[in-house]
């Protein structure tokens, strides 16, 4: 802040200390992976992880995809890991070739777990609504706060 202006009461100028919002559920039971080798919670420790459950024919998910791609592209070098979990709604969405083609056509470069047996979905507490899990360790709480504010660390 400029020295001529007083900070408004209650304005926090330091990085927010975010709580750990929970433990990242295991990806065990994923039926495959695109764009990555299988990922584990232990291997992601210390990162801010956004898990996006999706299906490629969902219009609501299609509307958020540009934001997910942008976040993954802009913040991946700053502690954010975006992971898609493709959990099919229709029978044709169980076909890995269809999922791969959709992911390539939609320029999804971040890791995607395929969840044809709904094992990952079941551990996440999925409710049928759009679901994002953002789980981070205290070491990356400042990164998560800057991402929330739209700032690169």
List descriptors.
5 strands; Glutaredoxin; globular; 153 residues; single chain; five-stranded mixed sheet
What does the secondary structure layout of this molecule look like, with pairings?
Elements: E1 32-34, H1 41-44, E2 48-54, H2 59-75, E3 80-86, H3 96-105, E4 112-114, H4 119-124, E5 131-136, H5 141-149
Parallel strand pairs: 2-3, 3-4
Antiparallel strand pairs: 1-4, 2-5
How would you characterize this protein structure?
The chain is α/β, with parallel strands linked by helices. The chain has a domain at 47-149: Glutaredoxin, CATH 3.40.30.10. The protein has five helices and five strands. The chain has helices at residues 41-44, 59-75, 96-105, 119-124, 141-149; strands at 32-34, 48-54, 80-86, 112-114, 131-136. The protein has a five-stranded mixed β-sheet with strand order 1-4-3-2-5. The chain is globular and about 40 Å long.
What's the order of the H and E elements?
EHEHEHEHEH
Tally of individual helices: 5
> Which fold does the CATH topology of the domain at 47-149 refer to?
Glutaredoxin
Beta fraction: 15-25%
According to CATH, the homologous superfamily of the domain at 47-149 is: Glutaredoxin
Q: What is the CATH first-level class name of the domain at 47-149?
A: Alpha Beta
Gap between N and C termini: 18 Å
Task: Provide a compact summary of the structure.
By secondary structure, the protein is of the alpha/beta class. The protein has helices spanning 41-44, 59-75, 96-105, 119-124, 141-149; strands spanning 32-34, 48-54, 80-86, 112-114, 131-136. The protein has a domain at 47-149: 3-Layer(aba) Sandwich (Glutaredoxin), CATH 3.40.30.10.
């Amino acid at each position: 802040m400029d020295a001529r202006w007083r900070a408004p009461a209650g304005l926090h100028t330091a990085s927010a200390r975010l709580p750990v919002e929970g433990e990242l559920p295991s990806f065990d039971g994923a039926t495959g992976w695109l764009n990555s080798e299988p990922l584990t919670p232990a291997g992601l420790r210390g990162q801010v992880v956004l898990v996006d459950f999706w299906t490629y024919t969902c219009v609501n998910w299609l509307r958020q995809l540009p934001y997910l791609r942008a976040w993954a592209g802009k913040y991946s070098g700053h502690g954010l890991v975006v992971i898609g979990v493709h959990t099919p709604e229709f029978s044709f969405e169980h076909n890995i070739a269809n999922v791969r083609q959709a992911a390539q056509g939609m320029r999804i470069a971040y890791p995607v777990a395929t969840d044809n047996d709904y094992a990952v979905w079941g551990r996440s507490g999925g409710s049928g609504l759009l679901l994002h899990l953002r789980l981070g360790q205290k070491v990356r709480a400042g990164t998560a706060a800057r991402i929330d504010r739209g700032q690169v660390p």
